[in-house]
């Protein structure tokens, strides 16, 4: 991997043949405030699975290939084209009821190329795809949460007894590192609506350095601290022996999310509503305010290929975005609202390999 320079954060905007360019093939470098560079230099390195088919994806391409719908009907009065600068205008036209719905038939064979994302190059960079957002929440008391938001155009949910479940358009995953006076303390790994929290000292570091390693589940992109087999049949419990719902991780494709990312801060000056701000005058931030779903609504039962088994569907709805990931965690590392108490794991779990 090429050396990482914390003093400069790179955001790349380039066109693919199958999508509208995020910013007309321009490459922009943004110099971040020195204190933010701490959180960039300690950002995770992600290992995508060696058989991964759906790679990190460009945020702008997702908008170019979708249209806003409510109840399977195109929203009237929506801006055209949708951009990262005007996406939040949809909040006044239906907000959380809106689904960014694929214009193409996503179940065709082969699938549209934009769903596949971009394979990281030899340095770990997703060339032509801004596929990450790093969001910093400073509580003003020495505690800072740095959120590393990872975006994929498609989620492949995996198979159970030969049946495929939980495929959906759009996939937001994240880790969060909590800092105290600039020193990393704990980490959160998102997994299927739940996740795990670890002491920062416990997780493996890339090349024995300071950047934590994240292992991305094959297709589902759930984040794990170890490679191997991860049964997630019980939400929030990562078992090393596959039973039913299983993710697989390994040291496959190396991805450095910081090399193609947007950077922003978030604060909560008036309660629970987040206020996002860029660190320069050109980075888009309005898209972070969007409260709708980043994918299709769950396909109806008569849709070709759709089926359900005990309420589990082949094709499910797309996810909400960063705005909905509990960015104001106060005293805790884990998101609020989880059914189980937040346990900070002091060591890597046995039975799994690093």
TrEMBL record:
Is the Signal keyword given for this protein?
yes
Q: Which residues form a coiled coil?
A: none
Task: Give the UniProt keywords, A-Z.
Answer: Signal
Q: Where is the signal peptide?
A: 1-19
Pfam families documented for this protein: Vps62
Q: What is this protein called?
A: Putative vacuolar protein sorting-associated protein TDA6
Q: Which species is listed as the source?
A: Lachnellula suecica
* Annotated gene: TDA6_2
